[in-house]
Write a structure and sequence with these properties.
Strand content of chain B: 25-35%
Order of helices and strands of chain A: HHHHHHHHHHH
Oligomer: heterodimer
Shape of chain A: globular
Largest sheet of chain A: none
CATH architecture of the largest domain in chain B: 3-Layer(aba) Sandwich
Number of strands of chain A: 0
Number of strands of chain B: 14
CATH topology of the largest domain in chain B: Rossmann fold
Number of helices of chain B: 10
Radius of gyration of chain B: 23 Å
Structural class of chain B: alpha/beta
Mean pLDDT of chain B: 90
Distance between the termini of chain B: 35 Å
Number of helices of chain A: 11
CATH superfamily of the largest domain in chain B: P-loop containing nucleotide triphosphate hydrolases
Helix content of chain B: 25-40%
Low-confidence stretches of chain B: none
Structural class of chain A: mainly alpha
Mean pLDDT of chain A: 90
Strand content of chain A: under 5%
Chain lengths: ~270, ~300
């Protein structure tokens, strides 16, 4: 890493450190609380019986695996795909990817950076490292919350290490979104529109995944959503799916490369 | 012949159908203070941004300190100092942190920071405050310090005195003079004619993206028509003087003309044959040259 990229990385840290600490604490606290309210094996059994009495369409709307997941293990895994942790990681992805390039351009501060002997590739590299490192810390905080929670309230047959692959895939999911965000940021000249576009894409992707699961006519569109490649409950049952991880890594790599190319060629 | 700090050949920049800069061919020598004059939207900032590699030219090419000016030419920017025309700073950073951060990015030690901070009147207490509490003048002082603190070989200053009070402006001119003595090349844009007249070795004038004149202040003045005021003892026929220049005012015994320099000897000879009691020939100010070019 060049000296310029190192200095810019310090710049990102200084700008985003408070937010990062808050996001990590929020995430750890949330997952820790979830372990406190997770159903005991008896409660889970009662809920499963209750749910089996529900009409078919209701079960379909709740998701095919809902009954299978009605256990303490499944319950904890569900909170790895709950909107709250997704929001925590989305905030970081949007903040760093859009803030690094488009926001600096829009505010006018990019002039002071880009007029120094710093390559444009260094700028993208610094943003990418800040993005991925922050996402890793927040995903790790999620798992740490689960681990601390399970340490303080042990649940039979539930181990904290079972959730490491889910936390890893969560990181991959938002690394992919972060790559998309960096590409959007590299091609925009204002932070606001870049933020709005990335947030919109995330929301549409989330909605598409949900609707395609419960509404058969659009089921074929599900692969278009990045959320299709992140299913913590399936990971818990079957382990990490290599193909899903590969798609997310592919999106992250391709969009990051495109961000380098676009940012190198554009006018600032 | 000395080497060029800046050289452009047919440099142009278009934004869609709008021509921001057209066919700019210019040479600025090392150690020179060059003023780039023009009204808003003339292309001054576009030129500076092209030299820094922030923009890609639509036509032509530029070299800065002997190296091509391009977005990928990061190395050359280590020898440059830049003050943007629309200076934007990070509001949450203190002045001291801003200067330290930009020093690290420059990759050169800020050898002149303390002296510049002192000369421009920024105090330690002010530098320890977040920039969002700064007045426009303080921000501009910080902008000047960050541009010059690492003693660049070439300083590109876009309207550097904007927002400075007259005392600080005067000190800034002294800073420029000292920098020039140390061998720094200074390229600055302005629409304040008096400051260009005061500090520049040469000036270039831009109009609607085109360079309309370039030369020393003296050369430009010489090329400009003189204002001649002739006062007579009797009524005279001012029409008799019209073919020497433009009669801009006439009273019974007082005539004011605009006359090209080469017409002056003939005019003076003709006036000598008239009942002349007083004659004033005013050299044009750079402002008059400027206004004449943009009329």
């Amino acid at each position: 890493m060049s000296a310029g990229a190192g200095t810019l990385l310090g710049h990102h840290w200084r700008r985003h450190r408070t937010a990062l600490v808050m996001l990590c604490l929020g995430m750890a606290l949330f997952q820790g609380i979830i372990t406190r309210v997770a159903p005991s094996p008896e409660q889970a059994s009662f809920l499963r019986n209750l749910l089996q009495m529900a009409p078919g369409p209701v079960l379909q709307a709740l998701g095919e695996q809902i009954t299978a997941n009605l256990s303490a293990r499944g319950f904890l895994a569900f909170f790895y795909v709950h909107p709250f942790p997704l929001l925590m990681l989305a905030v970081w992805s949007i903040r760093v990817s859009a803030g690094a390039l488009a926001r600096e351009i829009g505010q006018g501060t990019m002039d002071l950076i880009a007029s120094r002997p710093v390559t444009r590739a260094s700028q993208v590299t610094a943003a990418l490292i800040a993005l991925l490192a922050g996402l890793a810390l927040i995903a790790a905080a999620a798992w740490a919350g689960t681990a601390i929670g399970l340490f303080s309230r042990p649940i039979p047959e539930v181990r904290a290490t079972d959730y490491l692959p889910a936390a890893f895939q969560l990181w991959l999911l938002f690394a992919a979104f972060g790559g998309v965000g960096l590409l959007i940021s590299a091609s925009h000249k204002e932070g606001g529109p870049a933020i709005a576009l990335l947030a919109g894409l995330m929301a549409v992707s989330f909605a598409l995944d949900y609707l395609a699961r419960v509404w058969q006519p659009i089921h074929g569109l599900r692969p278009l959503s990045l959320f299709r490649y992140y299913d913590p409950q399936a990971i818990l049952r079957q382990g990490l799916a290599g193909a899903d991880a590969l798609v997310l890594v592919g999106v992250a790599v391709v969009t990051a490369i495109a961000a380098y190319a676009v940012f190198a060629w554009r006018d600032l | 012949m000395s080497s060029a700090a800046i050289e452009t050949r047919g440099l142009g920049k278009r934004y869609g159908r709008v021509r921001a800069l057209e066919d700019l061919s210019l040479r600025v020598e090392e150690g020179e203070v060059f003023g780039f004059l023009g009204p808003n939207g003339a292309g001054k900032t576009t030129t500076i941004r092209l030299l820094l590699g922030l923009l890609r030219p639509s036509a032509g090419a530029a070299t800065v300190l002997g190296r091509a000016a391009a977005p990928g030419a990061a190395e050359v920017r280590g020898d440059l100092g830049y003050l943007p025309g629309e200076l934007a700073l990070w509001p949450a950073f203190t002045g001291a942190h801003t200067l330290a951060f930009l020093e690290r990015l420059s990759g050169r030690p800020a050898v002149d920071r303390a002296a510049l901070v002192g000369r421009l009147g920024l105090t330690t207490a002010e530098l320890d405050r977040a920039v969002h509490g700064y007045s426009d003048g303080m921000k501009q002082k910080l902008g000047i310090v960050q541009a010059l603190q690492c003693r660049p070989k070439l300083a590109l200053l876009d309207e550097p005195t904007k927002g400075l009070d007259p005392l600080v402006q005067r000190e800034f001119y002294a800073v420029l003079a000292d920098a020039r003595r140390q061998g720094m090349t200074i390229f600055f844009s302005s629409h304040v004619i008096s400051e260009a007249e005061r500090v520049c070795d040469r000036v270039g004038m831009l109009r609607a993206g085109k360079l309309v004149s370039v030369g020393t202040v003296e050369e430009l003045r010489r090329a400009q028509r003189r204002r001649v005021i002739a006062v007579f003892g009797d009524d005279v026929d001012a029409a008799a003087l019209a073919h020497f220049g433009e009669v801009v005012e006439r009273e019974a015994r007082r005539v004011v003309l605009q006359v090209a320099q080469e017409e002056l000897p003939a005019l003076v000879a003709r006036l000598g044959m008239m009942p002349l009691v007083d004659l004033v020939v005013e050299p044009p100010s750079l402002e008059e040259v400027f206004l004449e070019r943009y009329r």
